[in-house]
Structures are given as C-alpha cells and as structure tokens.
Amino acid sequence: MNGVSLQVMPPQLLLVEPDNLVRNTVAGVCRELELAQVHQAASLSVGVQMLQAQAMDLLLLSLSEADAAIDLIERLRAGGFSSAPDAPVAVMAVAADATTVQRLKALKIRRLLLQPFKIHDVVHTVEALCAHVVPPASAQTLSGSTSTA
After folding, report:
1. Could you tell me if 133 and 88 are in contact, meaning their C-beta atoms sit under 8 angstroms apart?
2. Chain segment 4-59, per-residue pLDDT in tens
C-alpha cells in the first residue's frame, strides 16, 4: 500500500489598499497565519496590472477609488482576467451609501468591511473567502492509500 499526500498551496490573495499601514498589517497577519499568499498593490491600476499578469484566487479591495474598484470587479465578473470570474471578493470602505451597496450585491461581493475595522474582522473575512476557493485538482491534498496487485 502506498500513501499519497500532497501539500495544498495557499490561495493567491490580491490585496489592493492605498494606506500603507493598513495594507502591510493585513498582509502581515495573513502571512503569519498562513491564510493566503498575499500580493499587495497600493492602487487599483497596479492591481489591474497584477491581475493581467497572474490569476488570483481571491481579492480584498479598497473602495477608496470607488468607481474604479467597481469597474475592476465588473471586469473580473465578465471574465476579463485569468482569475476565475466567480473568484471571492471582499471590499473595504470608510462608508458606503445604499447605491454602492446595491452595486456590490449585484457583483456578488462576499463581504463589506467598514473602516475602521478590527484585524480579527479581516482575518475572519479572509478565512471566509478562502473557504469559497476551489483549488485546482492538481493542488488538492490527497490522503489515503492505494493498493497495487
């Protein structure tokens, strides 16, 4: 009997946040807890470049550039990047009016974090996003045994 075990790679998280302190704190905690491999962008334009270069499993975006952030999510949902169109997305904002919330709901945003938030709220949000990521078959953990005749 042979046992087969492959280690699961953590999901790829794109974190777009202009505030350096917030961005570095969130990234550091996610790395420390091994929740995800974090790719940081200080602006949405850099985030778009990163999405064009590499598929991401989940996104955590600031709404500081509200229209541009929503445009990025619409482009993702339309299949405009190599990332899955249904990739889990959460957003962070200082405030959100009813119109913005409705637009976010229509785009199937998993969570809206209102700032200031506690770091454990971010951890729970990233954990919830990760729970919705389906790893490719080649990266899933295989455990068990097989017998050969």
Report:
1. yes
2. 555 678 899 999 999 999 999 999 999 999 999 999 999 999 999 999 999 999 99
99 HSE (CA, 13 A, CB side): 2
Surface-to-core class of residue 36, CB atoms within 10 Å of its CB (0-12 exposed, 13-18 middle, 19+ buried): buried
Residues 6+ apart with CB under 8 A from 19: 62
Q: What is the pLDDT of residues 106-134, one digit of tens each?
A: 999 999 999 999 999 999 999 999 998 86
Q: Which residue has the tokens 């954990």?
A: 127
pTM to 2 decimal places? 0.85
Q: b vs e for 113-138, b when ≥16 Cβ sit within 10 Å of the residue's Cβ?
A: beeeeeeeebbebbeebbeebeeeee
Best CA proximity match to 18, nearest among 50, 62, 52, 59 = 62
